[in-house]
Design a protein that fits this description.
By secondary structure, this protein is of the alpha/beta class. Helix content is 41%, strand content 26%. The chain is built from eleven helices and 15 strands. The protein has a five-stranded mixed sheet with strand order 4-3-5-15-6. Strands 11-8-12-7-13 form a five-stranded mixed sheet. The two termini are 44 Å apart.
Length: 297
Amino acid sequence: MSDSGSINMFVCVVEEGSFSAAARVLGVAPSSVARQIQQLEQVLGARLFQRTTRKQSLTEAGELYYRHALRAAEELEAARSGIARMTGAPAGVLTVTAEPDLAVALISPLLPAFLRAYPEVTVRLLFSSALSDLVDGRIDLAVRMGQLKDSSLVARKLFVSRSQLCASPAYIAAHGRPEHPLDLPGHQCLSFRTSAGQTLWRFATPDGPCEVPVSGPVQANGLEFLKSLALSGCGIALLPDWTARKELERGDLVAVLSGFSSLPAGTPVSAVYAERRQLEPKTRAFVDFLAARLPGR
């Protein structure tokens, strides 16, 4: 392996936390990672990792090498990106963060076609809700729901997400169908929450906005998890259209209170990146690819 290859592999092992995790990211066998790290240690004449059956940590020599290797990897990537900008060809490692539900439902199905279209681009996808690393350049792009608050970032709207109350036919048969939002407190409601407290669902009605306190057996911060509970007949869930579209089309879920729009009427889903004079070709290609293919375009 070249010097740049061994540096990148070492950095990946440190950041991912183990040989096996780095192997999954790099698409190689764990034994290959272990062999390359062992060869690197032989070249350096020092042990880089302290390994036990329960954990793996950097030695003092490993800490020193990591600080220098990280800067070297960043410089190599900067050089590669600079050449790509000169040639205009999307290339290099594209690091993207997305919330897990968005990544699984929207990005994962599109990745194979993107990689076929841009074979010189390698996508590194991280499940995260943080935006901090966008500014210091460690992350190229984030896909997020909601309004952008950080003025140092740029958001390109990909589509608008709208939500719909959904339940399984079995739940409706057992508990009846609510006719008005004010009927919801008498039902088992599966709510998305990131902290404890009362859940309020808001709707547009002919008499004006209506705010309804709801409760149920489960609160969770995962949309796919709430959808699975709704499919199992556990209650009524408020789900984005892109999460439940297939299940509604198949009849596995049915729309509830479809005559009353949930509020807010729509939530933007955006590609978010740091403000730069010129967007790198690999990032621009990915943003354009998503914008052309995601729902609601």
